[in-house]
Amino acid sequence: MPYATGGDADLYYEVHGAGTPILLSAGMGGSGSFWRPQVEALSKRHRVIVYDHAGTGRSGRDIGPRTIARMADDMARVLDAAGVEDAHVAGHAIGGIIGMELALAAPERVRSLTVVNGWAQADAFIRRCFEVRTRILKASGPQAYVRAQPLFLYPPRWIAENADMLDAEEAHMVAHFPAVDTMLSRIETFLAFDGRARLSQIRVPTLLAAARDDALVPSYLSHALGAGIPDARLAEVDWGAHAFTTVSPDVFNDMMLAFCAETDR
């Protein structure tokens, strides 16, 4: 199993396929396994790199609070370990914020940027959602947090139709849950993020992918990102909620492949 070493936490990563590199960065949970519905389709045309954020998954767990700039350094460290000079960078929610930070700090490493259900600043709605999730985690622990998580990520009908799968995944997610302090620190870091003043400095080709029925990070926040990032392209789907990459993977995969192909041309 390959690891990006040399920092304060070894970072687990995987490489699939061949072609122009795509680096995929997960959201709050931090695990590269979030991108399972994408890997096979994207790796038919690209070299796909997924990784676990520091403090999560199979990466080093013994870390303290981590800034977004440090998380962007981690992302660059994974590219270095994989022998990649530049890549299409796609991030889900907070993974997209990390991608924006890398595009600002080291634009030469970012062939294109895709931000899925992201934001420039957490508004009162997002803060209320994460206040509830934080209270669940503090009061009832990881089991209750993981049990509630689908309510924030998926459409109601999809949850009902995939209840058995979600139940089966729950035990695995609880067993591999990050340290509670790490998760709380991650939430605090991303709620504190305010990138509005720097959006105009992002000069790489940018795609903003959003779901109109996202009940955790509403799509109007992607519109706000689009108003600030020069020449950013907005692509919205009607159904799939916050994790529409899992609910409607073919829709996102086709979107991503088309954007990467256009950029590579």
Entry summary:
The chain is of the alpha/beta class and 265 residues long. It has 11 helices and 8 strands.
Helix-strand blueprint:
Layout (H helix, E strand, L loop, with lengths): L2 E2 L6 E6 L3 E6 L10 H7 L3 E6 L16 H14 L5 E6 L1 H12 L4 E7 L7 H17 L1 H12 L2 H6 L1 H13 L4 H13 L13 E6 L8 H9 L4 E5 L6 H4 L1 H16 L1
Parallel strand pairs: 3-4, 3-5, 5-6, 6-7, 7-8
Antiparallel strand pairs: 1-2, 2-4
Helix pairs in contact: 1-11, 2-3, 4-5, 4-8, 5-7
Structural features, described:
It is a single chain. With 265 residues, the chain is an alpha/beta fold. It has 11 helices and 8 strands. It has helices spanning 36-42, 68-81, 94-105, 124-140, 142-153, 156-161, 163-175, 180-192, 220-228, 244-247, 249-264; strands spanning 3-4, 11-16, 20-25, 46-51, 87-92, 110-116, 206-211, 233-237. Strand 3 (20-25), helix 1 (36-42) and strand 4 form a beta-alpha-beta unit. The longest helix is centred in the middle third of the chain and has 17 residues, at 124-140. The chain is globular and about 50 Å long. The mean pLDDT is 97.
Helix content: 40-55%
* Biggest pleated sheet: 8 strands, mixed
Gyration radius over CA: 17 Å
Strand order of the largest sheet: 1-2-4-3-5-6-7-8
Task: Report the principal-axis shape.
Answer: globular
Distance between the termini: 33 Å
Coarse structural class: alpha/beta
Strand coverage percent: 15-25%
The poorly predicted ranges are: none
- Counting H and I runs of at least 4 residues, what is the number of helices? 11
Number of E-type strands: 8
Helix and strand run? EEEHEHEHEHHHHHEHEHH
Mean pLDDT equals 97
